[in-house]
Amino acid sequence: MPIAAGTPADQAPVQPKRERRKEARPRELLAAALDLFVEKGFAATRSEEVAARAGVSKGTLFLYFPTKEELFKAVVRENISGRFSEWNDEFLSFDGSSEEMVRYCLKVWWERIGETRASGITKLMLSEAQNFPDLAAFYHQEVVQPGQELICRILQRGVERGEFRPMDVEYAAYGLTAPMVFLTMMKHSLCACMPKDTPLDAERFIAAQTDNLLLGLCIRPPAGAPAGSAS
Amino acid sequence: MPIAAGTPADQAPVQPKRERRKEARPRELLAAALDLFVEKGFAATRSEEVAARAGVSKGTLFLYFPTKEELFKAVVRENISGRFSEWNDEFLSFDGSSEEMVRYCLKVWWERIGETRASGITKLMLSEAQNFPDLAAFYHQEVVQPGQELICRILQRGVERGEFRPMDVEYAAYGLTAPMVFLTMMKHSLCACMPKDTPLDAERFIAAQTDNLLLGLCIRPPAGAPAGSAS
Amino acid sequence: MPIAAGTPADQAPVQPKRERRKEARPRELLAAALDLFVEKGFAATRSEEVAARAGVSKGTLFLYFPTKEELFKAVVRENISGRFSEWNDEFLSFDGSSEEMVRYCLKVWWERIGETRASGITKLMLSEAQNFPDLAAFYHQEVVQPGQELICRILQRGVERGEFRPMDVEYAAYGLTAPMVFLTMMKHSLCACMPKDTPLDAERFIAAQTDNLLLGLCIRPPAGAPAGSAS
Amino acid sequence: MPIAAGTPADQAPVQPKRERRKEARPRELLAAALDLFVEKGFAATRSEEVAARAGVSKGTLFLYFPTKEELFKAVVRENISGRFSEWNDEFLSFDGSSEEMVRYCLKVWWERIGETRASGITKLMLSEAQNFPDLAAFYHQEVVQPGQELICRILQRGVERGEFRPMDVEYAAYGLTAPMVFLTMMKHSLCACMPKDTPLDAERFIAAQTDNLLLGLCIRPPAGAPAGSAS
DNA sequence: AATGAATGAGGGTTCATTCAT
DNA sequence: GATGAATGAACCCTCATTCAT
Q1: Does the distance separating the beta carbons of A207 and B212 come in below 8 Å?
Q2: Do C183 and D183 touch (CB under 8 A)?
Q3: Out of A6, A145, A175, closest to residue B209 by CB
């Protein structure tokens, strides 16, 4: 499954009732804005384009978001649902080995974030952080920190259960974060430019990274590991 | 050595002889532009600011670069080292173990790219790729590909010499790339916004990633590795 | 009775029977518009505000007045009393001295115009005349001229009856107009901004102006005049 | 001398040196802005018009004044020179009768303010006070108050020298202010709309008001007074 | 070559006006 | 009639770019 340009998504089909629209509008505008902000950056995206992609006129956009900056903030907030608590619970009640947890973690991230439109937020946030320091702080606190802590807990569990080697847990956690962020950035930047010839196969990427990561983490050769490693 | 706010590095050097100012101008402008583009993004950087930081007037900037876009392209091109062939030679004549090569590779990357102003180019390129597709292609060809190939060659050598396990070399190479890119992006985005409390210690980060990476790659426990891993 | 901030006067009356709302609508809208136009000027008043103050929706306003300009014109016309003929009659049948007529004239102006919402029209008209030349002409013809003529007649009567000195009646009439207009303008501009400390006491103002005016007009010291003047 | 529409003043003749222009620009822009603001009101005047009347492009205006509001403030400030201290001195060293002082005061006001472009500021300020409360306070403090005090001093002097009757000096002072303000407002509003037929002859207006005012103020019939008044 | 005053197209935002419900 | 969501022309302001000096 090679990744490439900005998944255009489904566009406004048949006009529903007026009432319906009013409730749907904010979501439609945010979706349009996310696409464009990710694609071209905040500054290079014109308000009118956002409106047009959402199928409304320029003025309508400002009926729902008082400024372009507020639109940006709303885009970020909209896509940071508090799914971490849900995930936390998922992992608290997780019953398998720690290796399985790591595999599950990366798999689930890809399914729920990486290959969805939400991954654009990461690109957006890293690209524009300097211009929106307060949002950056918010994002760090609401997304980066909780994610980091979730991963730390998994690694810690592995160490305590004797599955993982002792390690600098806090920084080892970046072993999961870095590949995901890298993949996301590539998907929304260079990969979106190169046509077909040099794609980045996300699943192959994740497989390779997961394998090597676990080989490094596990004390006993991991179940799903390739043969021939440090034995 | 924690990284945080945009390490200003060497700024505005004291006025040298008037003679060589003229020749130095383009370089000074490019340096100023790089700083600002990295700090604020392409669109949010005003031409006049670039000129001011380089100590010249607005008009002078356009004497050297016909448009802001051309300036941007020049900045990227100027800072995309064509030094890969040189590095290649370094590695061709490298005499140590493949593990040492990997360690050296990451160390050298940090010294020559990561902690210098050049790292800003990665941030810039990933952030603006969609707006400069031709540059993105150029960057991919001049930086990503050669870097990738260099790493592949190291891994391949390790496998062939029986030091590294058999692997999907092409994608395993991202095991080196991803942490570096991640570190770079963080340094120039979220880390530059956060105060002192949550910095990302670059050397600790590299140490942790290198350790785990090599544990995963090596057949025999790597020399510099932490104890207790898959043995 | 010092005048200061925009005496709100009677606002939004309690909802009357639903039946007569429809008929009352235009009047309510005009009242709301008058308040707002006087307070903020024509341009700075938003149509929606007018509607809101009248307790209806934006759309309803345009049901009664096709454009904002027409609303403005209606406001002015509505508040330009055609009551001059009525007042004329009052003065034709006036039985007292001409001095009393002048006093009565100023007193009545204050009671019927100056201290009511109608005084806002003067402010509005003088402020916006250039943007509504046809209205200005209409106002001049319906208000300024009749008022002027009414005053002239009073002065003329005084001269003819030997109560007032001979004078340039036409321009002497401004001796009554100027203070009233001045007071109105102040009330609706500077006085509405200043806090409590420097108010303009309308009745004291009128008393002082009336006294001096009559001392200048009368041949014999006027009855209500302060002692010590040219005798 | 009938007053009518907004004296267009002299427009940009031959292009002087570039250097010269830069110094002259602010003044030219302020002059243009004063004309237009007085003529059409603040809100109804477009920035581009101001620039055009000053013979420059839209952008140039914003080189000198950061916002339209700042332009407005600058217009008001520019035209409120601290001429009151000068006038104060003039009147402190005045040697004639108090009647002469009053006559001189009104005459000089007309020459220096009333018939010049500066009179537009009064119109502007009274029309827009509500939208610029801080400027209104500034104007009141810098213009209205000092003027009022100057007049009070003249009247007080007259009373103390036995030339004027005892009076409520503070409010009697409006006897000079009101006609001047009235004349100014009329000149810049209704009079600017009516073509030729109903002009307001400023000198005849001032003569009539001065005469009557002094008849009211003076204990002995004033020297320049019309015959036949209260004797 | 260097300057910086001037330009004007471009884009964010407002708000009078329309019209489907 | 009444509503208020939607429209889009208009306007303020920015800033890359030009060019007279």
Answers
A1: no
A2: no
A3: A175
**Strand locations in chain B (E):** 2-3, 200-201
Q: Do B193 and A133 touch (CB under 8 A)?
A: yes
Q: What is the pTM of this model?
A: 0.88
Nucleotides on strand E lying under 7 Å from protein C-beta: 1-21
A34-69 as b/e: b if 16+ CB within 10 A: bbbbbbbbbbbbebebbbebbbbeeeebeebbeebe
Q: Assess whether C145 (CB) lies less than 7 A from strand F.
A: no
Sign of CA dihedral A96, A99, A103, A106: positive
Q: Looking at beta carbons, which pairs linking B57-61 to residues 24 or more positions away fall under 8 Å?
A: B60/B25, B61/B29
Give the residue ranges of DSSP H helices in C17-144.
18-40, 47-53, 58-64, 68-79, 84-92, 98-109, 119-128, 133-139
Report yes or no: D154 and D101 within 8 Å, Cβ to Cβ.
Answer: yes
Separation between the CA of B35 and the C1’ of F19 (whole angstroms) = 29
DSSP state of A3: E
Task: Provide the pLDDT for residue C19.
Answer: 52
Report residue A194 as tokens.
């190169």
If one counts every other C-beta atom within 10 angstroms of the C-beta of residue C10, the result is 7
Residue A110, min C-alpha distance to chain B (Å)? 16
Which nt is closest to the CA of C50, judged by C1'? Answer: E16
Considering CB atoms only, which of C144, C218, C230 is closest to D218? C230
For residues C4 and C68, which has the higher predicted lDDT (pLDDT)? C68
From residue B189, give the alpha-carbon distance in Å to each of A97, B10, B120, B199, D113: 35, 20, 10, 12, 59
Q: Which of these, C107, C93, C113, C83, lies nearest to C209 by C-alpha position?
A: C107
| Structure token digits, residue D185 | 């407002």
Q: HSE (CB half, 13 Å, CA atoms) of C164? A: 26
Q: How far apart are the first and last CA of chain D?
A: 32
Q: Provide the 3-class DSSP secondary structure of residue B200.
A: strand
Given a cut of 80, is residue B220 above it in pLDDT? no
In order, the DSSP letters of chain D are: -EE-S--------S---HHHHHHHHHHHHHHHHHHHHHHH-TTTS-HHHHHHHTTS-HHHHHHH-SSHHHHHHHHHHHT--SHHHHHHHHHHT--S-HHHHHHHHHHHHIIIIITSTTHHHHHHHHHHGGG-HHHHHHHIIIIIHHHHHHHHHHHHHHHHTTSB----HHHHTHHHHHHHHHHHHHHTTHHHHS-SSS-EEHHHHHHHHHHHHHHHHBSSPPTTPPTTS--
Shortest alpha-carbon distance between residue D101 and chain C (Å): 18
Q: What is the pLDDT of residues D24-37, one digit of tens each?
A: 899 999 999 999 99
Report pLDDT digits (tens) over A166-220. 999 999 999 999 999 999 999 999 988 887 666 799 999 999 999 999 998 888 7
Kindly indicate the confidence band of residue B170, based on its pLDDT and cuts at 50, 70 and 90: very high
Both structure tokens of B125? 């390129």
